[in-house]
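User: Predict the complex with magnesium ion.
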Amino acid sequence: PQSHLQEALLRLNDAQRRAVLHGVGDAAAGALLVVAGAGSGKTNTLAHRVASLIAHGGDPQRILLLTFSRRAAQEMSHRAGHVLARALGLKHEGVPQLPWAGTFHSVGARLLREYATSLGLDPGFTIHDRGDAEDQMGLVRNALNLTASGRRFPGKATCLSIYSRVTNTQDSLRNVLAQAYPWCAEWEEELERLFGAYVDAKAEQNVLDYDDLLLAWHEMLGEPTLAAQVGGRFDHVLVDEYQDTNRLQAAILRRLKPDGRGLTAVGDDAQSIYSFRGATVRNILEFPDQFARDGQPAHVVTLERNYRSTQPILDVSNAVIAAAGERFAKRLWSERACAGRPQLVLVPDEAHQARWVADQVLAHREGGLRLKSQAVLFRTSSHSAALELELARRNIPFVKFGGLKFLEASHVKDVLALLRFAQNPKGRLAGFRVVQLIPGIGAATATRLMDALQDCADPIATVRDFVVPAAAREAWAVFADTYAELRKADPGSWPTELEAAQRWYQPHLERLHEDAAVRIADVEQLVQLAAGYASRERFLTELTLDPPEATSDRSGPPLLDEDYLVLSTIHSAKGQEWTSVHVLNVVDGCIPSDMATGCADDIEEERRLLYVAMTRARDHLHLLVPQRFYVTQQRARGDRHLYAGRTRFIPGSDLKAYQQMVWPAPPVEPPAVPPPAATIDLRNRLRAAWRSGQVG
Ligand code: ATP
Ligand code: MG
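Assistant: Here is the predicted structure with magnesium ion placed in the model:
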């Protein structure tokens, strides 16, 4: 097998191979950091490393692979499996799976459930997504009467952001307020009280929010026996996209692999685009020292050859990022044959932009490029609205990533709340949502029920015997039966219990919504989706942590065997590549966004965002500059009409690297036809005509 592996590794360049084989057969080797530019094969190298660890006898169960999204984890397992299949001569079914591949949050959730009893947690805990967490914060805020003083206390979303930032940066509330929320600094004391009550409320209900998953995982590893046990389960921990991790995630890694042995991280400081969520590029910069072993800093490998894009695309991308103050300076080069210069296209407005993009997409398809190898990227989910209309009008199928419409739909949330309530009877938000669907049950009754469930031994009986207003009695009995069925459901028979949920919900749905038919289809979609998960608990956890990103039109995930154009926010396009890429709205006010225009750090993050977008392209890159661009400004309500202009990240001096176009071409005056040489003497003719008194 090793010789076949050698063969697979021959495809890699020297630096990549060094990274793949680092520490193989060398007990003294410490941590490894691969820091390199876009498209230089970081993810590919990581996949080969996983394959080579397994080929050298490593146990797939003992490899922990941490990625940015579930999709990325699946893709990487797939790539590693492919290399391994060839190296070991396996049929594809025989390729070992990586059971521990996922995001920090989902892996954290699984470990917490497994060790729940040692942590004093009920293993049936449910997870609040951002929306739930905000609502919960709002409830606590109201209960504490913090809004009563007459001064304007920060809203629930702001409170949650502050709380989350404190957690993820591992900084003090005072510092976070001073640095990021100076206008809330006067509330420090109240916020302290609020956050304390928020933590208690979650504990009482047996729910965790996103931040808790990391925090609890970190705490768990702070206990020496647990740390030894959990850390000892994984011989290797590999992390992709390390530039977008936060302080807490780095701290978890330090507790998992204190001396860095068996730890590999790859990333690109030039692509760090998540600092608004507390991620910090300092993690990657400080990695060598944080994971030093016996005084030796971690081994760093850099990659400079880019295998993804053509040189002209790299030239313009390099120019955008060169102006940034990067710490790990790198100059990417490529040998990929040239397919012309990137285009910079000036269009009058977003409607024309949509038409031009649709034209080009079809032209590329005529030229033999499948829709799937083309993508349209944009700053914010709402920016594709005009394009979506245009694509629908022309029957061009598309899938959109980065919008969460499907799970945000109220009827989908209803069904999920029912499942959550069955999973965790103490979860107030889910319980509230579900029981109030029943006519005759209002907030007061719901509160009474949730209080009763708070410390009861038998939730099924409590629900069954609960006294409701007379008008609701019959419907309540039906609900109690369904609840019992869901609670008792055998974990092995998932997802059949969903039928019971569906049966109960359908009449409510029909009563509440005029467009019930469409919504029923969504619920069916949810049932189909559920079949892909091993258990109710895994389904709820994964769906909450990493919702299926794709939405085609307004209904659920698309049929993935069809050809479709990819629409994606730039943030969701991380790590991916397409033969042709269109980037919409490359204008000031969008990239950089008008909300970022101010603080220098924000602006630099926007620069990196453009760099990420541009480096997704393999052969064709089209940047669009609508001259009239609508922005929604938070302060000035409503849409504002702006004459924006090209982004500041492409200064005039860089324009020669592009093929510049104006579309539609401005109307041209018809070319003047040169007059023939004069052949008549008009003046004498007129005189003669007048004298003779006749014309003609
Ligand atoms: P990003 O920074 O965008 O995440 P990356 O550094 O992770 O990029 P990959 O996605 O791993 O880069 O690789 C980019 C492309 O280059 C992929 O299509 C990959 O298959 C190809 N590639 C990587 N290494 C090699 C190689 N040694 N030979 C040929 N192709 C390669
Ligand atoms: Mg990558």
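Confidence is low (pLDDT under 50) at residues 551-560, 633-637.
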